[in-house]
Amino acid sequence: MRTYIQINPVDNVAVAVQDLHGGTSLEFGDKVITIRQDIPAGHKIALQDFEKGNDIIKYGAPIGHAREAIAIGSWVNEKNIKTNLEGLQKYEFNPHPITEQPSRKSLTFKGYRRKNGSVGIRNEIWVIPTVGCVNGIVQRLADKLRQETQAINIDAIVAFPHNYGCSQLGDDHENTRKILRNMVLHPNAGAVLVVGLGCENNQISAFRELLGEYDTERIRFMETQKVSDELETGMEFLRELYTIASLDKRTEVPLSELNIGLKCGGSDGFSGITANPLLGFFSDFLVAQGGTTVLTEVPEMFGAETILMNRSKSKTVFDKTVHLINDFKSYFLENKQPIYENPSPGNKAGGISTLEEKSLGCTQKAGTSAVRDVLFYGERLTSKGLNLLCAPGNDLIASTALAASCCHIVLFTTGRGTPFGTFVPTLKISSNTPLYLKKPNWIDFNAGTMIEDESLENIQKNFIDYIISVANGKRVNNEKNSYREIAIFKTGVTL
Questions:
Q1: Which of 79, 118, 220, 285 could potentially form a cystine with 187 if both were Cys, beta carbons 3.0 to 4.6 Å apart?
Q2: Are 76 and 44 in contact (CB under 8 A)?
Q3: How far is the CA of 4 from the CAs of 59, 158, 271, 276, in angstroms?
Q4: What is the DSSP code (8-state) at residue 407?
Q5: What's the first-to-final CA gap in the chain, in angstroms?
Q6: pLDDT tens digits, residue range 203-251?
Q7: Closest listed residue to residue 408, CA positions, set 158, 180, 108, 123
C-alpha cells in the first residue's frame, strides 16, 4: 500500500495515505523528504518550503495560502493555511470543450411505471403531515398499518413528521409546501395519505391545488379536525391505499429513467481522491445512458464554482449558475455570517483545511459532463443530464431537497460516517476502508480500495452493478435500519 498521493503533478502538497511518523523518509521523485512531525492519514504534507503568503496547490489549483513559513516535510493543516476567498466575485462565461462518454442505452432496471409515465424504484406507502401538529397521528397511523399488514408486496410504510406547515411566512411557507408537494408526487410512493389539522397555514384545499394533476386513487387527504376519530378514518384510507398499491409489479425500464442525487458529508482528506471521483465516474456513466444526476450543496461549490460554470451547456445555464452561487453568498451576508468558513470540525480532523479544498473535492462528484440545467430550491427535474440544485450543505436538508427534485436514490460519500437517510434510499460510500470495516451497518459501499490494490475498472463495475441492484429493490442500510427523515430549509421568521 502506498504511503502518500500527489493528486496532480503541479501540487505542492501530497496526502498521507497512512499515519506518518516524524523522522520518516519518503521518496518524492528524485528527492527524499523527511517528515518533520507525526501526520495523520488523509492530511497534507508540504513538498516544498513555503514562505508566508505562498499559494498551496492541491487538485492542481490553489486551496489557500500559507499563514506563516512552512518547512518541507511539515504537516499542512487549518492552523497554517488560510483561504484565498473573500467577498463577492464577478464571473464571465468561458465555456470549455466537453467530451462526453458514448451512449450505451441498452441497460435496464426493474422499476414501477406509474400512471403518469414516471418510474419509481420503490413501492411504498407514505403518510405525510401538512403541519407538525399532527406528527403523532401520522406516526401512529403508519405503525398500525405495518402491524396489520406486515407490508406484503409493499417495500415500506413510512410516516414523515416535520416541524413546519404553520407559523411561517414568505419563502419559508412556500419551501415547506413545495417539498411536501414533491414528496406526495414522488414515484417511489405507490400511495400517499396526506394528513392535515384544519387550522394551519398549509391548508389542505390550497395544497391540493398546488399538486396540479395527480392520481386521485392513490393520493388521499384527511383533515383531522373534521373527523370524529382520526385513527379510524385514517386507517380506512390506508387500507384502501394498501390494497391498490400492493398489486403493483416491477417491470423492465431503461436506465435513462434513473435520477441520482450526489451528496457528501463528514468528508475527509480521502473524499476528493476516492469516493467523490467514483461518483463523478458514475455521473458521467449515467448521463451517457440518457439518465440524470443532480449536484447540490451550494456553499461547497464556493472556490470551485467556475469549473461548473464553464461546463454550462449554454449562456442561459451559465447565468442561472451565477445566480445560484451569488444568491447563496448574499444569503450569508444578509445574515452577517462569513461566506468562506465552511469546513466543519470533522472535516478539519479528517484533513480538509479550507473551503477551496473542500469544494475542489466536493465538485469531483459531478464528473466531467456538461451542466444541463439549474434547479432552485423546491423545483423538480425537467432536463436530463447533469443538473445543479440550490440547497445548503446541511446533510439532511440537502438530501431531502435532492429527493424532492425527483431523485430516486441519494449517493452520499463520507469519510467520517453517518447513519441517516432521507425519504429515498440514501446509499453511503466510504472514502476509506477503516470506516467501512468499523461501520458496516452504516456504509453500503467502500471506495477506499481505490488507493489499495483493487483495480479501478473492477471498482467501477461493482459500483454500477450495486446501484442497479438498489434500483431493482435491494435495500440499503438506512432502509434496513428504518433511518428515514426529512428536513426543510428555513431562512426567515417563525411567528
A1: 118
A2: yes
A3: 14, 45, 15, 18
A4: -
A5: 57
A6: 999 999 999 999 999 999 999 999 999 999 999 999 999 999 999 999 9
A7: 123
Dihedral of the alpha carbons of 14, 262, 440, 455, in degrees to the nearest 10: -50
Please tell me the distance from the alpha carbon of residue 141 to that of residue 139, in angstroms, as a whole number. Answer: 5
Max distance between CA atoms of the chain, in angstroms, equals 82
Taking the whole predicted model, whether its pTM rises above 0.85 is answered as yes
Neighbours of 96 (CB within 10 A): 12
State phi, psi for 79 to the nearest 5 degrees. -80, -25
464 vs 133: CA distance, rounded Å: 42
Q: Is 151 exposed, middle or buried (0-12, 13-18, 19+ CB in 10 A)?
A: middle
The string of pLDDT tens digits covering residues 94-110 is 888 877 766 666 899 99
Provide the residue type at 141 as one letter: L
> What is the SS3 string spanning 333-354?
HHCCCCCCCCCCHHHHHHCCCC
- Measured CA distances, 420 to 381, 466, 482, 486 (Å): 24, 20, 9, 10
CA dihedral 277, 278, 280, 286 (to 10 degrees): 170
- 3-class DSSP assignment, residue 479: helix
C-beta of residue 415 within 8 angstroms of C-beta of residue 275? yes
> Position 211: which residue type?
L
